[in-house]
Design a protein that fits this description.
Blueprint lengths: L12 E4 L5 H21 L8 H16 L13 H25 L6 H32 L5 E7 L1 H13 L5 E8 L7 H18 L3 E5 L5 H14 L2 E4 L10 E7 L2 E6 L7 H37 L5 E7 L5 E7 L2 E2 L2 E2 L1 H9 L7 H6 L3 E3 L6 H10 L12 E3 L1 H4 L10 H16 L3 H20 L2
Parallel strand pairs: 1-6, 2-3, 2-4, 4-5, 12-13
Antiparallel strand pairs: 5-7, 6-7, 8-9, 10-11
Helix pairs in contact: 1-2, 1-4, 2-3, 3-4
Length: 456
């Protein structure tokens, strides 16, 4: 009998989030070093060994200043002058740091000329980089590359103004594929049914990325229905700030061209910084396991499979990944003619049958921790049997999961309530992700496997 445990009780998380682009930060740190070398040549200053200390101080100073300035916010929806204006505090801080370093190191060799040259070069190079990237993305978005499709619902006046605003600013990376009025209440059945049919048709034609509601005149029942529809399709939902009756435990307030919007189910993994941290953890840990364990374990398991029965060593399975995209994965063969082999039972009990999927983690198809990967047939079954199932495809599937850690397993004939509980656990994991949570899941998974082996 399957054991289930209740979900952790979490109060709604209300936060105003600033998105940082750490890819741009890394590029700018390289520009800081290049600008220092270029300024050294232009000011005819001699490079000395302690300049390494100066460059280190400038790098640390740039990073520290970026934590207190809006330089690495998302400027897609703002003008270029806003981005340049955000650069000025960082340049002034660099000038101050360099002046202090040269003073305490008693380096008066063209100090004033060198400082001004360095800041001028740094400002020019980063401004050119900003302008170049903005033009590249503007060109791509104009060609329909990297554009997100969205539908806007709401009051005609405000809605049309918002749509015109988005269409005139293609650099935002959005493509409005439809607009529709929003009934004020679900009691207005005919109007709601018409809106729902429109959304279904738009999603079927364009596979919507986002749904934006520009309205303040609607009741909670209609808000719940919209949230439920968006969750069922895996579509990101944004509201104007007055709406607070969300059926999600986490949402954030962001600005789109100065216009405040609330994102429902926005998570840390939607940001570059935390996505990169999780990806680095996946690559480092999976590489270490493959090198330290896989080099001897994989040949050992393969030999045992070959000696016990004839047939392939690995079985290929087609699974669904992030965004519902399919990918090929491999597991060790555990059966012959639908009968579990002796080595197969051991592999299933220890979860080592999925060891080859570490290669999928390295390739980026999967993560070490995340919702369980499903086949296309399971996808259709669970989508019909549960609510909000598509939300779990906001992230990569994992080798280990929060639901499995809490003894929620899907088997043939599983009760619908258990299926829904598994989906709820997966969504809770997505909304409350942290490295500590991933670590907890790994430790609990290893303990669970060890316990099953000892007390089998």
């Amino acid at each position: 009998m399957t054991q289930t445990t209740s979900l952790p009780m979490m109060a709604p998380s209300y936060s105003i989030e600033t998105r940082h682009n750490y890819t741009k930060l890394s590029a700018d740190l390289l520009i800081v070093m290049f600008a220092f070398l270029l300024a050294t040549q232009l000011s005819h200053r001699i490079w000395i060994g302690r300049d390494l200390l100066v460059v280190g101080g400038l790098l640390v100073g740039w990073y520290a200043a970026s934590k207190f300035t809006p330089l690495y916010n998302d400027f897609r929806t703002l003008t270029f002058i806003n981005e340049v204006w955000a650069l000025l505090p960082n340049l002034l801080f660099q000038f101050a740091i360099l002046t202090v370093f040269l003073f305490f190191l008693n380096d008066t060799n063209h100090a004033r000329t060198f400082s001004l040259t360095y800041v001028s070069m740094l400002g020019t190079l980063i401004t050119l980089k900003m302008y170049g990237l903005r033009k590249i993305f503007h060109y791509w978005n104009g060609k329909g590359i990297y554009q997100k499709t969205l539908v806007v619902l709401g009051d005609s006046g405000k809605m049309n103004g918002f749509v015109d605003f988005v269409k005139k600013n293609s650099q935002f990376g959005y493509k409005v594929v439809g607009v529709a009025p929003l009934p004020s209440s679900a009691a207005r059945v005919n109007e709601w049914d018409e809106t729902l049919r429109y959304l279904e048709k738009a999603h079927a034609l364009h596979l919507l990325d986002e749904l934006i509601v520009i309205s303040e005149n609607f009741e909670e029942d209609i808000a719940k229905k919209i949230t439920q529809w968006a969750d069922s399709k895996g579509v990101l939902l944004r509201f104007t700030p007055r709406f607070l009756q969300f059926r999600a435990s986490r949402f954030t307030l962001e600005l789109l061209g100065g216009k405040p919007l609330i994102s429902v189910r926005n998570t840390l993994l939607d940001t570059d910084y935390y996505w990169l941290i999780k990806r680095l953890a996946d690559v480092i840990l999976s590489t270490c396991v493959l090198l330290l364990v896989g080099l001897w374990l994989v040949p050992l398991i393969s030999l045992a499979i070959v000696l016990e029965s004839s047939g392939p060593i690995w079985i290929k399975k087609r699974l669904l990944g992030q965004g519902g995209k399919e990918f090929d994965s491999w597991v060790f063969r555990t059966q012959i003619e639908k009968q579990k082999t002796w080595i197969g039972r051991i592999l299933l009990q220890t979860k080592l049958d999925k060891f080859p999927r570490l290669l999928n983690v390295l390739r980026g198809d999967m993560s070490l921790v995340g919702p369980q990967a499903h086949k296309r047939s399971e996808y259709y079954q669970l989508q019909l049997a549960t609510q909000n199932y598509k939300v779990r495809y906001r992230v990569k599937p994992g080798l280990m999961g929060w639901a499995e850690t809490n003894e929620v397993e899907i088997q043939s004939g599983t009760d619908p309530a258990v299926l829904q509980q598994k989906v709820d656990y997966d969504i809770w994991y997505i909304e409350n992700w942290s490295l500590l949570l991933d670590g907890e899941i790994m430790v609990k998974t290893f303990y669970k496997v060890l316990r099953s082996v000892i007390f089998r």
